[in-house]
Amino acid sequence: MSNLAGIGKTGRTRLSKILEKNPGSINAADVAKLLDLSQKEANRILSRWCTNGWLYRVKRGVYIPVPMDSTSSDIQIEEPFVIADSLYSPGYIAGFSAIKHWDLSEQIIETVYYFSTKQVSKRDPTYGSTRFQIKTIKENRLFGTKTIWYGSKKIKVSDPTKTIVDVLDDPKLVGGMSVVFDIFKEYAETKYLDYKLMLEYAGRMNNKTILKRLGFMIDVHLNETPSELSGMANLISSGYSNFDPSIICQFIVEKWKLKIPVSWKKEYDRKK
Q1: Long-range contacts: 131-140, Cβ < 8 Å, 24+?
Q2: pLDDT by 10-residue block (mean), the chain, 272 residues
Q3: pTM for this structure?
Q4: Where are the chain's structural domains?
Q5: Between 208-221 and 177-188, two packed helices, what is the crossing angle to 10 degrees?
Q6: Which of 39, 68, 81, 116 has the smallest C-beta neighbourhood within 10 Å, fewest atoms?
Q7: What's the CATH code, domain 8-65?
Q8: DSSP 262
Q9: Is there a contact between 111 and 84 (Cβ–Cβ < 8 Å)?
């Protein structure tokens, strides 16, 4: 980290005004708008504050405030959701980050997960000391979100039901179906549980394997199928899908057209 240099009373007032409105990240457009400056002058001010150690350049055009107690050159990003959105929007906070936001797991995951409609060259960048995991999605999957605010910054996070549907679509995102199952059980005990909405979301995702995995988990977890899901077996495709893409699946569950691993076969047989 650069040694702090003075920025003067006017500079401090300006920086305080900007940080009050944009606590997570700053860009030239924010500075130009708030201080009524040209884009060129805004970029010059940001560069000077960065050189003097008051700001840290995350990526070209994006800066964060340096914590006053920071003693390391490896800056801790205090509002990583804001950084993810600043760099990769349009998109939303997803995966384990959304799971933790909705308190659906006690696992401690420091990585920030973000689903973006942008094509990115690096899917696991690190900014400061924070690691990010970026997944590119199609625009038609940009739904099922809630808005959270950081100062004047509006960030989207997948709602609890979309969070579950996303990991059913891509179990590898969280480490496989055993983890998905644990998260689903937590979700099923919350006020967010909405099977009807889950079916709607699964349909919009255009991936019938989501329904197959969900149906199988319901059979393993519950003594009877919820009424909202009673006809779900009629909605699945005829081809066979892997229950968990991360491990070998050699046993067939005909009802759900699923190939499952031996560990899950034992669970399924126990409930039959």
Answers
A1: 132/80, 132/83, 132/84, 133/95, 134/84, 134/88, 135/94, 135/95, 135/170, 135/173, 137/91, 139/90, 140/204, 140/206
A2: 58 82 81 89 88 84 75 69 93 98 92 96 89 97 95 91 98 95 96 96 95 94 84 91 93 94 85 68
A3: 0.83
A4: 8-65
A5: 70
A6: 68
A7: 1.10.10.10
A8: H
A9: no
